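Subgroup meeting minutes
Present: P.N., E.W., G.H.
Scribe: E.W.

1. P.N. recapped why we're keeping a running log of single-chain structure predictions: easier to compare across weeks, and new members can see raw inputs and outputs side by side.
2. G.H. added today's entry (509 aa).
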Amino acid sequence: MTKTGKVTLVGAGPGDPGLITVRGLEAIKDADVIIYDYLANPALLKHAKEKAEKIYVGKKGGAHTLRQDGINQLLYDKAASASHVVRLKGGDPYIFGRGSEEMSFLVQRGVEVEVVPGIPAALGAAAYAGIPLTDRRHTSTLAFVTGHEDPSKDDSSIDWSKISTAAGTLVFYMGVKNLTDIVSKLVGNGRSPQTPVSIVEWATMPKQRVVTGTLGDICAKAVSENVKPPALTIVGEANELRGELAWFEKKPLFGKTIVVTRTRAQASKLDEALRRLGADTIEMPTIAIVPPDDWGPMDAAAGELGSYHWAVFTSVNGVEYFMERLWKIGGDARNFANVRVASIGPATSQRLRDFGIVPDFQPDKYVAEEVFEGLCGIEPPDGKKYLMPRADIAREALPRLLREQGAKVNEVVAYKTVPGDFDVVELRARIADGGVDAVTFTSSSTARFFAERIGADFIAANAKKFAGISIGPVTSDTMRKCGIPLSAEAEDYTIPGLVAAALKFFGVK
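Output recorded in log:
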């Protein structure tokens, strides 16, 4: 028998990427190939290796990217050529999924398999909707039932005469299409029409929606509210506790859709902060950070570091690229022994500390003019040498001010800022349809490239459809010049300050 690789079946959980298990995340990080479904949050793919192959085989509304026998064969074929294949499925892969079929197919052909359970969709939906599936005051029995089967067919595998009243709480998976038949079978087999019901749409996600009612009126409500899959239906008296225990929809930014324009590598901190507050975030990196065309000037500056009086860092990227080149030529933090270090803000200062360098100066306000005043307050710039590793399109204010005071300033390009790779058509469509509440800008370059890619005419025509939230006055000035609506500006020019500005704009105290 031909030796193959390994396939790990991973339950992705109910939707919120934070609900992946530790073991599941480890498997994703180790995978050479990831084959994923529609209900597996694509945000989890960010944890994969850069060169990992990612293959979508999702099924949505009856539209199959690949039929089940094709998925089975794909898993086998990839296992034959790859050391580790991860099969990523929403929820728990063995609960109303075909994970067991896929694993059987592989085991019968000699492929090594591992199964990593996931938080079932029913558990996630109930917890995030504030509905305990069991509660001793209401019920101590629970059943999961597929709603995908047609309850009216003669050969139904569900014994409705027993299941309708056997469990205090019933959770129906994939039952939106057949809701009328499900309700009819339940009531027809003894369940009271007054039984509370909740339908949880897009469970655990920022766009989660809960429609409540009873068996007597839930079908009409589902139609009037235009309930769509994916959704789970929870039947039972435990629904009565939702009013007291609902917490997810009470998050301050719940229901708001906010675009994050930072680089893909740097977006996570802002994205996570907004998501923790309940926002639905869309990562649209308008910029990307790449190395300079020529490392020569940077390497020369790093090699002569001891000849400078000051090294001034105006961004986290500047710190990272400079330290990388310093290491390349055999240097380390000791090369800063006789050099004073200035940092423009707390994030940059922290990155310096990560490398063992404690800044000598950080301004109260994180703009070039404040850095200049602070440096002058420490010592006159006249005759002093300043090294500034920075972006190719950085502002000229600080080096100009220092030179006017007699300083010698060496600006070296530590990195280049280029347009990012994002779906312009999708972003335009979302904004035009009113599907974006705010767009955040963390630098002038994010604003400038946003305007260039999305178009001045489009912004002018849709400026009232979204709010522009700026990290500080320099970025705000660029936004105004580009015609981007300026709705809020951070008082503290940091990511936490930007988040605070968003909360204030949306009226959250």
